Amino acid sequence: MSLKHLATKLFVFDEIDSTNSCAKTLAEADMPSGTAVVAEYQSTGRGRLGRAWLAPKGMNLLFSVVIRPPLHRKLSGLLTFYAATAAARAAEYVSENPVETKWPNDLLLNGKKFCGILTENSYQNEQLRYSVIGVGMNVNQKEFPAEIAGRATSMSLETGKEFSREELFRNVMHEFDLLFSDVAEGQFTGILDEWNKRCRMFGKPVTVDQEGAQVSGTAVRLQVDGSLLLATETGTTAVYAGDVTVARPTNDDIIQYDGSSDLHETGY
Ligand code: BTN
Asked: pTM for this one?
């Protein structure tokens, strides 16, 4: 694998606790930007919001990449959208099926989640020291626990094909590398535009669950700071974290957004 910006240091494990935890240890030991950790199985794979990420052995793609773009803390929240866009391009190329983005860090095939991203950043003063980007992509898994079967899927389930995880990984790293020069210059416009084009939730009624507290409204768009703009009954509001559920819209559910109190310009 020949990459222009990212190093090609690769650590492959049969079994590990979490590739993100391992990548963090490697980052602390000064391994270069692009160092990647891949595992066949994770005993304590981690998802967002302290959740577990479970995957059967040898079926999916589980990896983490250390990157070191010279970014201010304020921009580093956008790295998840960089990773999602790169992973979406690769999965779309390999699966030959359209890949959708879901705020903030999911990728969907036919409306179901097949990929989640966990970005963990370390800072010194207000500068990013490194970011560990962890990607869990359901590739050849055929069965899911009953409680998530309605929402979760894999590339294999959606296409009826088996995929080479090695080829997929090479493609994801290639896309990470292609987009890296923009990221290193703090240039996220193209990435956010592509992420937006892939997202199907805009104009639809959604509920964002923020660890128990819920905000409902119509999803308007992704903002330049990575937040999701919602039109609620009391006006527009930006949400920065949480889980989104898209409801089936009735006309009464859709709150029209007239462009007032537009937070789009409040970025950097
Ligand atoms: C989510 O959707 O909550 C994010 C899931 C991220 C899972 C991946 S699997 C590889 C890497 N190592 C981890 O422990 N987590 C990420």
From this structure: 0.91
